[in-house]
Amino acid sequence: MATSAVPGAIAALLAILRAAPSLANIEVIDGPPVGDMSDQDLVAIGWSPDGDQAAEIVQDFAYAGARSRDEDFTIAGWIDTWSGDSDVGACRLRAFELLAVVEDAIRATGPNPDAPTLGGAVQWAHLTRGVLHQSNTDQGVRAGLAFTVTCRARI
What we know:
Strand content: 35-45%
Number of strands: 6
Largest sheet: 6 strands, mixed
Shape: elongated
Radius of gyration: 17 Å
């Protein structure tokens, strides 16, 4: 019996995003970046520079008898865009364009595109939170967008 659906949900989310045609030229990474982030757009799953949490889990018994449990959890994500110039608006717009691709990819998973199940890894998943960060660096404008994917699973 699985202790948590989180590892499978993160793996499924990564696979879905890596297969999304609109993210074909975007690096989709598992966890924190390990190299220089200044020369490309990227999407990170299971990481946000805002905090140490990759995911947060809450569980409870699904039924009397304790044979199955309901698990609600969140997965942290981060979108990073860099323009190389001083156009804050264009960089911000690019971050939200990538967020829209992430949201659309989550919505259209599983055998029924109306049931966002991360390919069956969870009962449902959806984008629930976003926090925009903007900064000017010596290499140009940077926009970061922390986001949260909230899921429910039966384990």
